[in-house]
Amino acid sequence: MSGKKIILGITGSIAAYKAAYLASALVKRGADVYVVMTKNAKEFIGEATFWSLTGNQVISGIFDPPTKPEITHVSLPESADLLLVAPASANIIGKIANGIADDMLSTMAMVVRCPVIIAPAMNVNMYTNPIVVANMDRLRQHGCIFVEPGVGRLACGDEGVGRLADPDLIVQFVEESLMGGPRDYSGVKILVTAGPTQEPIDPVRYISNRSSGKMGYAIAEMAVARGAEVTLISGPTELDAPANVEIVRVKTVREMFDAVVDRAGDVQIFISAAAPADFTPAVVKDQKIKKSTRMTLDLDKAEDILAELGKHKDGTILVGFAAETENLENYAQEKLRKKNLDLIVANDVSPGSETFGSDSNQVTLLSAAGDRVQWPRMSKREVANGILDYIKKNLWEELS
Ligand SMILES: Cc1cc2nc3c(=O)[nH]c(=O)nc-3n(C[C@H](O)[C@H](O)[C@H](O)COP(=O)(O)O)c2cc1C
């Protein structure tokens, strides 16, 4: 980071004290750090901590006279290499996402042309509020990089997602961004499936499952962030397509099967995070089935996408997910072996496990080579990054 000019924006969060560690870590790595504090951030931590850690004047009031011409609301952001907002309040995220520039930090965020990294920290209800979620999605679409918050007990006493990400992880994001991004997947083609399928019964009804698609979308997002060329084959979900991902939308397992088989020959890694149906109605009625006292549905076994790829495996790394309600690891091991996979991600979807639809997941990785790696509950993006790390470290050699 030597010689890099970083603006560290700090907002009114209980996690503001962690910004002292961040400022110090960035300075130790050679960065020239300018701290910009919102008025509310100063309710949580004092300026003196930051000017003494960084050696630079702390910037706050938009009308405070600048001590040097190069640190005005325009000149500093114009010359910055990176803007890091950590911790980022719901308020600053909302302001930046909507073009509001009513204080020094939000004004600078409008001026910068350098990468912007945002590390949110807030109460779980704030973090999952659809307005905040939409603001974050909007910023992602504009290229802002998010360091997702962790899951656990929050300062307010609530449990859930919202705790500022590990400061060392934030520093790692900064390092990777300054180096031009974490490009360890540059030039790698990855096919990912996500979400459920819908198997029609008649023109108005279908069989489906509770998969939200969030895990597969997180994998696609993280893989792109790390330089991969990603195609995401998605069943019906409510999620927006991740930026810079080629998305193919399908409904039925047959459509998902065809879409995967068409493209699998062209990729180095296939990650099946979707939950395609195991059974599909034997006959799809042309007209709506009329109400009666009893009705029996005949189901056929659906196409098995992973088994098909496993059968014709030709060097592609195959990663599957096993979502089970009981005997999780036994079933996952069986699936790993039967379908000729390299890695399986076992996740518990029993009632109360809060996996489907949730932003977090607790998984165990089982590899064909006999590895077993169990992780604590983490955000789905952290799980996604962990899977990509595992592949790069343990399976990539076999491929190249
Ligand atoms: C004790 C306390 C802790 C707070 N922690 C957070 C927080 O972690 N994240 C957040 O978004 N807002 C938090 N808030 C609310 C913000 O400080 C408030 O929305 C404020 O307007 C943010 O202003 P700023 O974005 O300009 O710094 C907290 C408020 C209090 C009183």
Q: Helices, strands, pairings?
A:
Layout: E1 5-10, H1 18-28, E2 32-37, H2 47-54, H3 75-79, E3 82-88, H4 90-97, H5 104-111, E4 116-120, H6 124-127, H7 130-141, E5 145-146, E6 150-153, E7 159-163, H8 167-178, E8 189-194, E9 199-202, E10 205-207, H9 214-225, E11 229-234, E12 246-249, H10 253-264, E13 269-272, E14 279-281, E15 299-301, H11 305-311, E16 317-324, H12 328-338, E17 343-348, E18 360-361, E19 363-367, E20 372-374, E21 378-379, H13 380-399
Parallel strand pairs: 1-2, 1-3, 3-4, 4-5, 8-11, 8-13, 11-12, 13-16, 16-17
Antiparallel strand pairs: 6-7, 9-10, 14-15, 17-19, 18-21, 19-20
The protein binds flavin mononucleotide (FMN).
Q: What about the largest sheet?
A: 8 strands, mixed
Shape: elongated
Stretches where pLDDT is under 50 for at least 5 consecutive residues are none
Q: Which percent bin holds the helix content?
A: 25-40%
Which class best fits the helix and strand makeup?
Answer: alpha/beta
Task: Write down the domain tally.
Answer: 2
Q: In the CATH scheme, what's the topology name of the largest domain?
A: Rossmann fold
Which hetero ligands occur in this complex? flavin mononucleotide
Straight-line N-to-C gap: 31 Å
CATH superfamily of the largest domain: CoaB-like
The percent range for strand residues is: 15-25%
Placed side by side, the strands forming the largest sheet appear as 12-11-8-13-16-17-19-20
What is the strand tally?
21
The averaged pLDDT comes out at 91
What's the CATH class label of the largest domain? Alpha Beta
> Helix count?
13
Roughly how many Å is the radius of gyration?
24 Å
CATH architecture of the largest domain: 3-Layer(aba) Sandwich
